Amino acid sequence: MSDAHTGAGSSLGTGLPGVPPDLSGRSRPGERAIQAVLFTSALVSVAITVGIVVALVRPVVDFFADVPFGDFFALEGDLAVVPLVAATFVVTAIAMLVAVPLGLGAAMYLSEYASPRVRKVLKPTVELLAGVPSVVYGFFALAFVTPTLLQKILNLEVGFTNALAAGLVLGVMIIPTIASLAEDAMAAVPQAMRQGSLAMGANRMQTTLRVVFPAALSGIAAAVVLGLSRAVGETMIVALAAGARKNLSIDPREGMQTMTGFIAQTAGGENPVGSTSYNMLFAVGLLLFVITLIINIISISIVRRFRQVY
Amino acid sequence: MSSVAARTARDLTRITTGRSRDRTPGSLIFLGGLWFSLFFGVMVLIVLIVTTAIDGAPRFDGALFTAYDSTLAPERTGFRAGILGSIWLMFTTAVLAVPLGIAAALYLEEFADNGRWYNRFIEVNLQNLAAVPSVVYGLLAVAVMALMGFERKGIVLGGAIALAMLILPVIIITTREAVRAVPTEIRHGSLALGATVLQTTWRQTLPSAVPGIATGTILGLSRAIGEAAPLLLIGLAGAVRFDPAGIFSPVTALPIQIYSMTSQSQEAYQQAASAAIIVLLVMILSLNALAIFIRNKFQRSW
Amino acid sequence: MSTSPATISASGSTTDRVGSLADVHEAAERVLPDLPTDPVMEALDLNVYYGDFHAVHNVNLAFGRNEITALIGPSGCGKSTVLRCLNRMNDLVAGARVEGEVSYHGQNIYARGVDPIAVRTQVGMVFQKPNPFPKSIYDNVAYGPRVTGMKVENMDDLVEEALRGAALWDEVKDKLKQSAYGLSGGQQQRLCIARTIATKPDVILMDEPCSALDPIATSRVEDLMISLREDYTIIVVTHNMQQAARVSDRTAFFTARPDETTGNRTGLLVEYNLTSNIFSNPNDKRTEDYISGRFG
């Protein structure tokens, strides 16, 4: 038996005494080259950010060379941005009024009430809402929500384009963003916390609202803030349904042009490169980028600061 | 003392009558509210599809797919240019974004040392990019195209650059998740046999992550195919009456045609737009279904 | 070689021996010098840190050729950490730092210019949980030779040899192209051993190789370890003192010492001796307490 093993060993093991194996580093040029390619690919994401800033800032510098700051940050006038910002605010506020309660409600149901099997079917269904193109939502707002829902059924006096329809539909569009992320946050709350609450005689509603919800608050807040950033940056719904006219008003029944609406509608028109109106496109774009960037940073830092370690 | 006894008695009755504390009126209203939240969105989706399908019903004909946009006969206008354009844009976008996204994700997951500031910076930057509004990518694409000497004429390459930048974060994030799902034991097993990190990534991690990567990529592309805003900025217009013939060819896209027809007041255009929306939704739903199929069929649970 | 009757009878006797520990014990007991005279590997003043945490303190150990050395001790005593230093798998842990020397045939594997990948082709490793690759049985075994660029005349023969060496050939010879995931836990672990010996290493490290296996599979792997001792130097970390007693020639007992200020537990080597001495006549009170079950 031991002979058999020695026989196998002579062909398998390298254990030749007296010949120290070579452990020196091999140079692997191909390997290093590929690593460099992978690293460069990762750097492209940084290049895109830098590109965005550069691409936006240069025309904006040209723009402010022609236009005084006062004309841009004015309440009215061809170059005024304040009405656009105000309209964005109105539409976003309506959207959030729809999306926050419905998104969180859906998240609570999926996380706390639905069985795993039901959740597996329902969550993708809700996420499907986010897969519908925004131009389709815009058409829906224009072709159904305003004429049928608002004018016929609710008997409201709204214009052909109005902030209300755009905001409502935009809200529906961002429900899945909020629901999905908030559900993730609530699902991460450890089962032991729920059982502790249920064991003390609390029912499911109390457990959901008083134990799970507070425990997942940071994730939920991040979900809401991310939803907000989506709402501010969404373009096609407002370009179609919110209006194409600057209107400094807080009446949602009126049509009003938002920042993204302005960008889309101006881009569709004929503006020679380098003209003031063309450059204003970039000025509004830069403002939009900065606003969403601030919102995103808030969202990221909420997650960072309050990340629960269970 | 007696009150405690009384309470115990009451609780006991409750247990014996089998009335759950989850059936109090407050709880039931709350549960109803949650149900409503969940199904509201689904309801909207159903109403959207049904009303649009009804509006577009008269136009489900061959001309919808074979004819070009027509101003003379709006009732026979078609989306041939847009459908072909969207397909061209999708493939060009995939060619630009998929290899880049996978490479970046592999670097971040398998090679990057998270202690280094530049890797952490890439990380935060990526989170930010994922939430940049799509119009902003359109503005960037305009600048990139200008840099390469192209005017804003709405060619395939320009649209694809905008869409590729838009979905790059999506592809990176989903690829990383798929790669992360491959257990460390597999990597260690490979490294302990004397494989390099690159060999381990190429022969073990990547093949195991392919279904997840495919799912994420298809979902990213299905988002790209529905996008209109960045394409508007890069100069795509609705009225293109020829097939795209290459990446430098002027092009339109289905969502752009829908947008431009929606802005017209004639009833015929509204019908055509409705029908085109159903076509677009079918395309997107098929991509989603494909993604789900791949995930369920090939995804390994470790 | 492939159908040598001697090999078949060897594997036959392996199965016969399952469950009869007396034979195993007998096989394990050999007359050995008090200290390894020709050590394959040596740890010299080995210290390991994870960030600020001092995980292992001043370990000196010599591992003898064609011997099985067991590293035992309570959890957190640093025995796995020491094992992972021996083929530089600790390099993969972020923030890990190694001081001192690990000498392999007189070369410090932590010296500048040493390629950890070259080290790992000489010093293989088998893990706690069987971790076959999601590939066929054949490809699992062929993987190591393929990635390390080994010159192989006939891969089929090499695969067969390795599987025979791991006492798995007879069980899998008809399903080499099937997924390794179809094997039982014990078979998977023996496949991982076959995978390791296919790369023709010199030393095999085993990190609690049986902790995820049932008793029958465990005893098979233990038999395998003893037969592999003929050709390889084996270093095994185990939680199971009976296992150390059954299979090993020498045993190193580690313990953990809490830091007085931080409470972090630093591992240190208490006693290193022939296994028979450790279990029958330990020198250190702490070893005796552990062996007799009074601690850990």
TrEMBL record, chain A:
Topology in membrane: Multi-pass membrane protein
Endpoints of the signal sequence: none
Gene encoding the protein: pstC
CDD domains: TM_PBP2 (cd06261)
Every ABC transmembrane type-1 domain range: 85-299
GO BP terms, alphabetized: phosphate ion transport
Cell location: Cell membrane; Membrane
Keywords: Cell membrane, Membrane, Phosphate transport, Transmembrane, Transmembrane helix, Transport
Residue spans crossing the bilayer: 36-61, 81-107, 128-150, 162-186, 207-228, 280-303
Residue numbers spanned by region Disordered: 1-27
Known role: Part of the binding-protein-dependent transport system for phosphate; probably responsible for the translocation of the substrate across the membrane.
GO cellular component, as recorded: plasma membrane
Single annotated GO MF: phosphate transmembrane transporter activity
Protein name: Phosphate transport system permease protein
Similarity field: Belongs to the binding-protein-dependent transport system permease family. CysTW subfamily.
Automatic annotation (TrEMBL), chain B:
Domain of life of the native organism: Bacteria
Pfam families: BPD_transp_1 (PF00528)
Xref: PROSITE patterns: ABC_TM1 (PS50928)
Compartment(s): Cell membrane
Transmembrane intervals: 28-54, 87-108, 129-148, 154-173, 272-294
A GO term, aspect molecular function: phosphate transmembrane transporter activity
Keywords, sorted A to Z: Cell membrane, Membrane, Transmembrane, Transmembrane helix, Transport
Domain ABC transmembrane type-1: 83-291
Role description: Part of the binding-protein-dependent transport system for phosphate; probably responsible for the translocation of the substrate across the membrane.
NCBIfam families: 3a0107s02c (TIGR00974)
Protein name (record): Phosphate transport system permease protein PstA
UniProtKB/TrEMBL annotation, chain C:
InterPro entries, per database record: AAA+_ATPase (IPR003593), ABC_transporter-like_ATP-bd (IPR003439), ABC_transporter-like_CS (IPR017871), P-loop_NTPase (IPR027417), PstB-like (IPR005670)
Any one GO biological process: phosphate ion transmembrane transport
CDD domains attached to this UniProt entry: ABC_PstB_phosphate_transporter
Molecular function GO labels: ATP binding; ATP hydrolysis activity; phosphate transmembrane transporter activity
Cellular component aspect of the GO annotation: membrane
Annotated Polar residues bias: 1-17
Pfam families tied to this protein: ABC_tran
UniProt entry tagged with the keyword GTP-binding: no
Record-linked SUPFAM superfamilies: P-loop containing nucleoside triphosphate hydrolases
PROSITE patterns: ABC_TRANSPORTER_1 (PS00211), ABC_TRANSPORTER_2 (PS50893)
Chain spans, region Disordered: 1-20
Gene3D superfamilies reported in the protein's UniProt record: P-loop containing nucleotide triphosphate hydrolases
Keyword hit for Repeat: no
Entry keywords, A to Z: ATP-binding, Nucleotide-binding, Translocase, Transport
Domain ABC transporter: 41-281
PANTHER family: ABC TRANSPORTER I FAMILY MEMBER 17 (PTHR43423:SF1)
Protein name per UniProt: Phosphate ABC transporter ATP-binding protein
Organism, as annotated: Nocardioides donggukensis
Gene name, Swiss-Prot/TrEMBL: pstB
